[in-house]
Design goal:
The complex is a heterodimer of chains A (503) and B (208). Chain A has 503 residues and is of the alpha+beta class. In chain A, 44% of the residues lie in helices and 7% in strands. Chain A folds into four domains: 125 residues, no CATH class; 70 residues, no CATH class; 69 residues, no CATH class; 125 residues. Chain A has a four-stranded antiparallel sheet with strand order 6-5-8-7. Chain A has a two-stranded antiparallel sheet with strand order 1-2. In chain A, strands 3-4 form a two-stranded antiparallel sheet. In chain A, a hairpin with a 5-residue loop joins strand 3 and strand 4. In chain A, helix 18 crosses helix 21. Chain B is mainly α and 208 residues long. Chain B has a single domain, classed as Orthogonal Bundle (Multiheme cytochrome fold), CATH 1.10.3820. Chain B contains ten helices and no strands. In chain B, helix 1 packs across helix 5. The longest helix of chain B is centred in the N-terminal third of the chain and has 27 residues. Chain B is extended, with a radius of gyration of 23 Å. The chains are: A alpha+beta (503), B mainly alpha (208). The interface between A and B is medium-sized, with 21 and 21 residues.
Chain lengths: 503, 208
């Protein structure tokens, strides 16, 4: 008997079985770890008597909330210590001017920690650091609405800057970052609302980040519209494949729980590609000792535990752990497997990656090198947007390139193709190239294109025979639009018709 | 035969004394009346430059230019009603005059702003001790309608045991946080920033 128990093989089998049991447990969203004695402050009950009259809409929202059902009252969230920088007195109680994620974190500790480390909570810091813009410039340009403001208070009780604001990267007077109300609107703080893709739409729509357009026109989005009522959005536990299965929302893939994977409020954790820059790169996730995370493109020197690396804010931090792109991809793939076969999921990601590589190789990398050359040769002034070519370039990689790449990420043909690649080509040949030719002359422009595109140089530019017939004379035929009767006059297509050129 | 005996005291001298005393007394009462009234006006109070500084935000406030046209002068809020109480308040208030003459240079806008919180706390205590009595000179709880129905409802149903000052502070002068949450250091830094002074100079100025 003792032989059996201490057999290393048996022990290993047992451990492996145990491990599988643990990882295959349906994991739920973090629960509030505190017991109910930590909320329901007596004095908070007094707030209601006035506020149900003074602000009855707000009061009703709270009444319908999970907070009210659990006995969480106004003062539980709005209480402050007299020493807090944003404390003021109201009806004898010391109140926080601003309820920040740190305040919510008193009960929702795990969500607070995850969100504080996330790209969301660092999005204003990142923008300040990357663009070099001043705080005032960010506010004036409207960046703060999504990226969050810097809220400053004066001791005389007046809010100095940045309010109202519920941007995800808001910098709060208590030092915390973000705003829970960015996704969980006041005063219901509903989970259903945050799980609904409409919630993300406030910022993830339009040329910077056309995720709503991409999702809405993807199969997932279409399924959501058709089966919204089956999504169990209000349920406490929200594990895909267990609590709902009709489709995936933004939350499902980027934050959601599935058997074997926890829900997380670190929203960028599972993304491996940077889809917003000129050239897309795969990135590792670096986790710092202080809990913050950042993306580290693979082109940059790799780091390991204990190394020092600049954080998103620009200040340095000590690396605690690094997750390679493959690990991030594995996390997101787990979600897919609840509804898709493994080969399907893998093939989807292969297609997606190939589309991004195509964008890089056929457009972004050569075009970026060409632009660099123009600046180096002083054919363009360093002043941004004072030449038409610069605006065309911006439109190409930013508006259209982003549409293409975000469309590819969510398998939205209308975004990746119609709004993305097709328009990218139209503007490349219709705006960018003529402007380049005007700047340099026709032949030097061709030479530059040949130099940077190499064997990807679009042959049809100089060889009409290499063009697809549909691009030229064949577009004049009725056949290009609708099938024609066999007795209609036929135009003989060029025997050397090739593929549509690139980009 | 018993006499009342009072006639013994009604002499020429006492008659003159009572008449003259009564006359002067009446004149003194009248003088106090005029004195209390005059010393409660904005024009009198702002003869000191330090008071001119606190009057600046007052002139922007709803108490200076209300839609109704009823202007509250300094004394309407800060001096009690009734001749004796008003005189007493002026008597106590004369220590401000003493401070103005022999204390810190309150005419300096920086010194004035640095000392403002203590003045505000003292004024709030004064209002609280009197259950906001001077507010009721003009305001009647039952007549507060506001712009929304909720305003009236809350004033009628939620005001038991409270007086105006318990909820309404920072209406007229420069806002100062409640004493409970006041942070002297942050206030000093704010004033330094406002007047472009080096950090730490507020503490030095306060000891002068």
């Amino acid at each position: 008997m003792s032989y059996l128990v201490f057999s290393p093989l048996l022990l290993r089998c047992l451990l492996v079985t145990l491990w599988f049991m643990v990882v295959s447990l349906p994991v739920q969203a973090a629960k509030v770890a505190l017991d109910a004695t930590h909320w329901g402050i007596k004095a908070g009950e007094g707030c209601v008597s006035c506020h149900q009259t003074a602000s009855s809409g707000l009061h009703q929202q709270w009444q319908q909330s999970a907070h009210a059902k659990a006995g969480v009252n106004c003062l539980d969230c709005h209480q402050a210590k007299a020493a807090d920088s944003d404390a003021f007195t109201h009806e004898g109680e010391v109140i926080a001017t601003l309820v920040t994620p740190q305040d919510c974190g008193r009960c929702h500790a795990e969500e607070y920690a995850e969100n504080s480390g996330s790209i969301h909570s660092q999005s204003r810091l990142l923008l300040l650091n990357r663009t070099g813009a001043s705080e005032a410039e960010l506010d004036a340009a409207g960046c703060s609405v999504c990226h969050g403001s810097r809220v400053t208070l004066k001791i005389d009780g007046t809010l100095a800057t940045g309010w109202p604001n519920s941007g995800v990267g808001r910098l709060n007077p208590d030092g915390s970052r973000g705003a829970c109300s960015a996704c969980h609107g006041r005063h219901q703080f509903s989970r259903a609302e945050a799980r609904d893709p409409q919630s993300c739409r406030r910022c993830h729509q339009g040329s910077e980040s056309p995720d709503h357009e991409a999702y809405q026109s993807s199969r997932h989005g279409i399924l959501f519209a058709a089966h919204r009522s089956e999504m169990n959005l209000q349920n406490d536990s929200w594990v895909v494949g267990k609590d709902y299965s009709a489709t995936a929302t933004c939350v499902t893939c980027h934050m959601g729980a599935a058997p074997g994977i926890n829900a997380t409020h670190d929203v960028g954790m599972r993304d491996i590609w940077n889809l917003g820059g000129v050239v897309s790169e795969q990135q590792s996730l670096v986790i710092f000792e202080n809990g913050e995370t950042r993306d580290l493109p693979l082109s940059q020197p790799a780091v390991r535990k204990g190394d020092t690396l600049a954080r998103n804010s620009g200040e340095s931090g000590v690396v605690k752990a690094v997750a390679a792109p493959a690990r991030r991809r594995a996390a997101m793939s787990k979600v897919c497997l609840e509804c898709h076969g493994k080969s399907f999921a893998t093939a989807f990601f292969t297609q997606f990656d190939a589309q991004i590589e195509r964008y890089n190789l056929e457009f972004a990398i050569p075009a970026q090198a060409l632009m660099q050359q123009l600046y180096d040769d002083a054919r363009l002034t360093p002043t941004p947007f004072d030449e038409p070519l610069e605006l065309s370039w911006w439109r190409l990689w930013h508006d259209l390139g982003i549409s293409y790449r975000h469309g590819a990420a969510m398998a939205s043909p209308s975004m990746s193709s119609s709004e993305g690649w097709q328009k990218l080509q139209q503007h490349f040949y219709g705006d960018f190239l003529p402007q380049l030719q005007q700047l340099l002359g026709v032949e030097p422009s061709r030479q530059l294109l040949k130099q940077y595109w190499g064997d990807r140089y679009p042959a049809w530019l100089t060889d009409a025979a290499a063009a697809a017939p549909l691009m030229g004379y064949e577009s004049l035929r009725p056949a290009a639009i609708a099938p024609v009767a066999s007795d209609a006059p036929q135009i003989t297509p060029s025997p050397s018709a090739g593929a549509v050129g690139t980009p | 035969m018993a006499t009342i005996g009072i006639a013994r005291y009604i002499t020429v001298r006492t008659t003159v004394a009572v008449t003259v005393g009564g006359l002067f007394g009446s004149l003194f009462i009248l003088f106090l009346q005029v004195f209390d009234h005059y010393t409660s006006t904005e024009s009198f109070c702002t003869t000191c430059h330090s008071m001119e500084l606190v009057a600046v935000p007052y002139r922007e406030s709803s108490h200076y230019r209300p839609a109704s046209g009823v202007r509250a002068e300094c004394g309407d809020c800060h001096v009690s009603q009734g001749l004796f109480a008003a005189t007493w308040d002026h008597f106590v208030g004369s220590r401000d005059l003493y401070k103005q003459l022999f204390g810190a240079n309150y005419d300096d806008p920086v010194i004035n702003a640095l000392h403002l919180p203590e003045a505000a706390f003292a004024a709030r205590e004064w209002f609280a001790e009197r259950q906001s009595a001077t507010c009721y000179r003009c305001h009647t709880l039952e007549a507060i309608y506001g712009e929304r129905p909720a305003t009236r409802e809350i004033h009628l149903t939620q005001s038991a045991g409270k007086s105006c000052i318990d909820c309404h502070i920072n209406l007229v002068h420069r806002p100062v946080p409640d004493k409970k949450v006041f942070k002297r250091e942050a206030w000093n830094r704010m004033i330094e920033e406002e007047f472009a002074l080096p950090a730490g100079s507020a503490e030095v100025l306060l000891t002068q």
